[in-house]
Amino acid sequence: xxxxxxxxxxxxxxxxxxxxxxxxxxxxxxxxxxxxxxxxxxxxxxxxxxxxxxxxxxxxxxxxxxxxxxxxxxxxxxxxxxxxxxxxxxxxxxxxxxxxxxxxxxxxxxxxxxxxxxxxxxxxxxxxxxxxxxxxxxxxxxxxxxxxxxxxxxxxxxxxxxxxxxxxxxxxxxxxxxxxxxxxxxxxxxxxxxxxxxxxxxxxxxxxxxxxxxxxxxxxxxxxxxxxxxxxxxxxxxxxxxxxxxxxxxxxxxxxxxxxxxxxxxxxxxxxxxxxxxxxxxxxxxxxxxxxxxxxxxxxxxxxxxxx
Length: 308
Fold this sequence. Notes:
Layout: E1 3-6, H1 11-34, H2 43-54, H3 63-92, H4 98-129, H5 143-152, H6 158-165, H7 176-180, H8 190-196, H9 199-212, H10 220-250, H11 258-266, H12 277-302, E2 304-307
Antiparallel strand pairs: 1-2
């Protein structure tokens, strides 16, 4: 009989929210870079431009939506991934093979991405708002105001309101959505989310490999190295799709479909699909590291004891 500490289902949401408090300005700059129609500014130039026009606090525009996003997106993904993984590990009395971790991570990302789409939509709009002319700004007061107003954009029909809230929600439901779907403007956000959260399985696998060397214990250095690797994998996989997602979510009438957005972005050249790569990497890797550092500490001090 052996006692093990495992995460509680909500630890992923809490740890991701804590990380977002530090990395939100980088996320905002990434959104601004991705929604440029031409590659005019880099990361530093965009940061200076935002601060000069709106002040330092503007870098935290949309923080309430970002936290709501973490408590839907991330909480769901971590809860699904870690809960099912731990149950399967106990059932099989061993560690899941890597391909099963990937499938589980993709499933968690698929589901959590759909659940978190409304908050992500408001998050992108609030962050992008400050770069628009005053007369074109949406001016959401906070995430709840944004969600309610997006709902009301759907007139008085409940289903139409839901459709607006989940605008951009299926590009990620499956890779096939990009190919077969002609529907379109409402199919944007979920695949980048699904790919990004494959870092759950990348983190697990890299941590397992590091521990297997025998040189490092299950400590802070191991958590750091594993999370840096996981964040790097996520950036490589999802950046082009994240650009398309951001453009679709922030647009009003510019794009008629996912395909239209892809073709318009492609006209700007291959680099357009990697707009915001540096701030995305600068944001996502620290965000991943901070998330897992906090998660491991929560598990260490407040985790659930399981006897195996």
